[in-house]
Specification:
CATH topology of the largest domain: Rossmann fold
CATH superfamily of the largest domain: HUPs
Number of domains: 3
Mean pLDDT: 89
Strand content: 25-35%
Length: 516
């Protein structure tokens, strides 16, 4: 199959490049950016993309591609850091900008380069860099600039080398998908052969080969990710070898545990077990207010409870399966390359006990190359109903990272009630399916209020609602103010412990979607 090789230098957006190309049915493989080309090379390789990076290319220890990448004769596209690295490696000059280029910025195309085939001469791009190409290397020309005159794209006059200093893979970049398709299909000549059905076929074959007749235990939360992972495992493997373990942490949403069990039984699973462990989790979280510490405690306890359950189940040398997505991996600093930065730790990625199982080679994560919207598409391809695959994302640590500060049973109950009312209001107004993710956060803030003639001192709840396609970038959802006022009134009227409601208008970046 025709393939684009993506060399990863630790960018938060690397997998988005692959995703955009998969949307165009072009298959991609991601490899660490500093691998020698002979080890990074993949079957059917028709072109190479150099990803962005949190590094500056002139820093000590900054990652660099094997020089053979430039000399292999295949088309190469550098994105942001990749373009700057390409410039530096060919003798050009890269330097720090006096003011960082970040966010939307107009790009003006100055030539008839095939990379911009069919694109308008002016479009809005997405920038995220503090360095810039000051002087292109010999043989390179500037093919596009920003409205500030800074090079936005370069191309070599005789070699198949291109670079852009913006991020075409990000949803906010106009015509970014078309630009990547121009490179992969138009310049590299890739045939569009990849599909979600192909993913199921390939992943099922890989699971059968790796697992054989061994038992597989899936820690399932009942959310979209773990449910789709369970459906895929049940499709690929013998159902009697797949064990689904649901741990009720006491940190779930209203009525969620009962809904989870109904969903699991509908998958045709032969082995499903529910453990009610709320007291244990809440006790472990007592007195803890640091977000990373909370995630570690929840993650470790998940595995501790799971290991006890395994002993009771009598499983032998089993595989631990998880519904880990690529967003979990890269935010936890576990991208393909070795230069990724940690944004926040996900309990199913960086927990020491999960790390141990990973070191033993006994962790399988069949969704770890996918983003949320792709997981939804996979779920539909596997026959799951929209009521399951259309649910808003819910973090693995549950309400533990939506109660800011110390987590207690009373706070969880307040948040559960407020969140339930919020989602109910969204559904009644026909807004739920228009929002990528919505939820309440209980802030460690109480404020004075009045109910009738009585002074109150209630908790503050923050509403979060974002529009996104993949979770890597997100805009605040643009509520009608009347809807916001009515939702706020519904929450404060029906959840007596809540005295104030605020709305989070932050985008991602610079914020993340979850608060912790």
């Amino acid at each position: 199959m025709d393939t684009i090789l993506i060399l990863d230098y630790g960018s938060q957006y690397t997998q988005l490049i692959a995703r955009r190309l998969r949307e165009r049915s072009v298959y991609t493989e991601i490899r660490p950016g500093d691998l020698p080309l002979d080890r990074a090379r993949v079957p059917g390789m028709k072109g190479v993309i150099l990803s962005g990076s949190p590094w500056s290319c002139y820093e000590d220890g900054a990652p660099a591609p094997d020089r053979a990448v430039y000399d292999c004769g295949l088309p190469v596209l550098g994105i942001c850091y990749g373009a700057q690295r390409m410039t530096l490696d060919h003798g050009g000059l890269v330097s720090a900008l006096p003011e960082r280029e970040y966010g939307r910025r107009d790009v003006f195309v100055e030539s008839d380069d095939p990379l911009f085939e069919g694109l308008p001469r002016r479009f809005s791009s997405w920038m995220s860099h503090g360095d810039s190409i000051e002087k292109p290397a010999n043989g390179f020309v500037v093919t596009a600039r920003t409205d500030g005159g800074i090079p936005a794209a370069i191309a070599h006059e005789s070699l198949p080398l291109w670079g852009v200093q913006f991020h075409p893979e990000v949803a906010h970049c106009e015509h970014g998908s078309e630009l990547l398709a121009n490179f992969a299909v138009g310049i590299c000549g890739c045939d569009a052969e990849w599909s979600m059905a192909r993913y199921i076929e390939d992943e099922s074959a890989a699971l059968k080969e790796r697992v054989g007749d061994a038992d597989v235990l899936l820690l399932i939360s009942g959310g979209v990710d773990s449910t789709v992972a369970g459906a895929l495992l049940l499709r690929a493997l013998k159902p009697e070898r797949v064990h689904l373990l649901y741990i009720d942490t006491g940190l779930m949403r209203a009525r969620e545990s009962d809904e989870v069990m109904r969903t699991l039984s509908s998958l045709g699973a032969a082995n499903v077990r529910r453990l009610d462990s709320g007291d244990e989790f809440l006790s472990a979280l007592s007195g803890v207010d640091d977000p990373e510490r909370k995630r570690a405690i929840i993650g470790d306890l998940f595995i501790t409870v799971q290991e006890r359950a395994v002993e009771e189940l009598g499983l032998g040398d089993y595989f631990l399966a998880q519904g880990t997505l690529y967003t979990d991996l890269i935010e936890s600093g576990k991208g393909v390359g070795s230069k990724a930065h940690v944004i926040k730790s996900h309990h199913n990625v960086r927990s020491p006990l999960v790390e141990r199982k990973r070191a033993e080679g006994r962790v399988i994560e069949p969704l770890d190359r996918l983003y949320k919207d792709e997981v939804r598409a996979l779920g539909r391809e596997l026959g799951l109903p929209d009521s399951v695959v259309g649910r808003h994302p819910f973090p693995g640590p549950g309400l533990g990272v939506r109660v800011l500060g110390e987590v207690t049973r009373d706070k969880c109950d307040i948040l559960r009630e407020a969140d339930d009312e919020y989602l109910k209001q969204l559904r009644e107004r026909g807004l739920y399916d228009k929002i990528w993710q919505a939820f309440c956060v209980l802030l460690p803030v109480r404020s004075v209020g009045v109910a009738g003639d009585v002074r109150t001192y209630g908790w503050t709840v923050a509403l979060r609602a974002v529009a996104s396609s993949d979770g890597m970038t997100a805009d605040v959802f643009d509520f009608d103010m009347k809807d916001l006022r009515d939702i706020s009134a519904a929450i404060t009227n029906r959840v007596k412990q809540v005295g104030r409601v605020v709305y989070d208008v932050s985008s991602k970046p610079p914020a993340t979607i979850e608060w912790e």
